[in-house]
Write a structure and sequence with these properties.
By secondary structure, the chain is mainly beta. Helix content is 0%, strand content 55%. The chain has one domain: Domain of unknown function DUF5300 (Immunoglobulin-like). A hairpin with a 5-residue loop joins strand 4 and strand 5.
């Protein structure tokens, strides 16, 4: 089987290649005789999309995920190896020891997950998605894109569109905290737009590369004019698909 992240570490790995099949995470530990044993692990990428939180600490079952707090619109950078099983997920406003939000998630071996902490004004939410890269194909040379609607408005849905070469890729009425499925798109420029009846009207054009997987981050506070917290469109690269064959 392909091993994407071979050994459990607290630190982020520098590069993550997402294989289309045979994905396996494992932790590497040695017993008293020096033999390596494999401990099941999953991969987690975490985002701070809460506009009024500039020092967010994330813990899994009491263990801190990152070495330093995450500022608003920052993220772990790569998928990090985590232990599997049903685990509590808590977010804190460092150094306050009282969690802003706590939920639970069953993390399965070999799977990738994204955690988005969203909300504002003492109303926060953990949004956890399973990132099904094994359903995406690298052989086509396409790119893949999805979005999360983290705009702090639990009342008004947002009209989210993604277009490429004049053709519609996404045309959704997205409620707050929605994470869309990955959509196949030709590499090159795509235009993302988000509008709502609460005064949101923002668009951005980005360039997508072949075989890469992207998440578009829609976040901010409607009608806010402050540059740091107004509605913005950002994006991250989750990883690059590979054509590696499963190994015994």
């Amino acid at each position: 089987m392909n091993k994407i992240l071979s050994c459990f570490r607290r630190l982020a790995l520098p590069v993550v290649a997402v294989a289309v099949s045979g994905v396996l995470f494992s932790a590497c530990l040695k017993n008293k005789d020096g033999d390596s044993t494999q401990i099941p692990a999953a991969g987690l990428m975490a985002f701070n999309l809460a506009p009024d939180q500039q020092s967010l600490v994330i813990q899994l079952s009491g263990n801190t995920l990152t070495q330093s707090p995450l500022a608003y619109q920052s993220f772990t950078g790569v998928y990090q190896n985590i232990y599997t099983g049903n685990r509590s997920v808590s977010a804190f406003d460092y150094p306050d020891p009282t969690p802003l939000v706590t939920s639970s998630q069953n993390f399965e071996q070999g799977k990738y997950y994204s955690l988005f902490v969203v909300g504002t004004g003492d109303k926060y939410k953990n949004v956890i998605s399973t990132d099904n890269f094994d359903s995406l194909s690298a052989s086509s040379g396409k790119a893949y894109v999805r979005y999360i609607n983290a705009i702090a408005d639990s009342v008004n849905a947002a009209a989210v569109t993604i277009t490429a070469n004049g053709s519609s890729v996404v045309n959704n009425n997205a409620v707050y905290a929605t994470v869309s499925e990955f959509k196949e798109v030709n590499p090159g420029e795509v235009t993302i737009a988000v509008k709502s009846s609460n005064g949101v009207d923002v668009n951005r054009t980005i360039s997508l590369e072949p075989k890469k997987v992207y998440t578009v981050l829609l976040s901010g506070i409607p009608k806010e004019t402050n540059e740091s917290s107004k509605v913005q469109i950002r994006f991250v690269t989750n990883g690059t698909l590979t054509d590696e064959s499963p190994k015994p």
